Amino acid sequence: MGSETNSQKDVSSLSNWAAERQFLGRFYLSQGFRDEQQHTTNDCGPTSLAVVLNLLLFQANLNSRPLDKDSVITDARLGFWQRLPLWVPNVGGATPPWGMVTAFNRLAAEFKLDWRAERHSHARRAHVIEHLMTGKPVTALKIWANGGAHWINLVRYASDKDRLYYLDPNPYLEHLSPEKRLQSQSWAEFEADWSRKSWWSRLFGIQCEIIIYTKTI
Fold it and tell me: InterPro entries from the entry (predicted)?
């Protein structure tokens, strides 16, 4: 019983962890499918940014309309190198770390949101935990064993369990209840994907990538 209470204190400022899970789960967004065979789109980047922006806008009480991935894609006005065109085979629509930062900062300025995104490459565990323990989301890039990649938003950390809680734009989670949309895994499980290298990640110097968010005033 004591262990559970400590975990709740670590991952949430609320006394009711079930309520916190439901609250965070409401910010989930789906990156969607690109065809009837239910192949997922490569829009995990814009979708993850929409989630972070919605969360920060809500906390700032700016009463803006909720953003979705299409809003981010359209309003961020990213160029070729910042978001790969849809006609590029297999990876069309993918957003690299520098595109993520550009998109967030443009939209934050548009909404007069006093937050700024920064890319942190070759990050370490301490960088991730420090931001989560101060209540700031961290957007992280996983690299799959098959060479694919996927953006997710880390939102909480439980030190006693060494466990991360995150919002994944995986469209298969869309029909779950809000509290079940908040996913979790151990640090070791997360790090296995986060620190993985692929030929393309070596080529572009991408490794242990996170996007961190800090207040500007």
Answer: Peptidase_C39-like
155 φ, ψ (degrees, to nearest 5): -125, -20
The domain limits of the chain are 2-215
Contact 66, 94 (CB under 8 A): no
For the domain 2-215, what is the CATH code?
A: 3.90.70.10
- CA dist 116 and 61 (Å) reads 17
Q: How many CB atoms lie within 10 A of CB 92?
A: 14
Q: What is the pLDDT of residue 3?
A: 41
Structure tokens at 137: 């989301």
pTM, rounded to two decimals: 0.90
Other CB atoms closer than 10 Å to residue 187's CB: what's the count? 18
Contacts of 148 (CB under 8 A, 6+ apart): none
Count helices and strands in the chain by DSSP H and E runs:
9, 6
Judged by average pLDDT, the poorest of 55-59, 83-87, 134-138, 198-202 is 83-87
Q: Name beta bridge partners: 153.
A: 139, 167
Cβ neighbours, 10 Å, residue 49: 30
**Structure tokens that stand for 27 in this block:** 């910010």
181-185 long-range contacts, Cβ below 8 Å, gap at least 24? Answer: 181/25, 181/28, 182/21, 182/24, 182/25, 182/28, 182/155
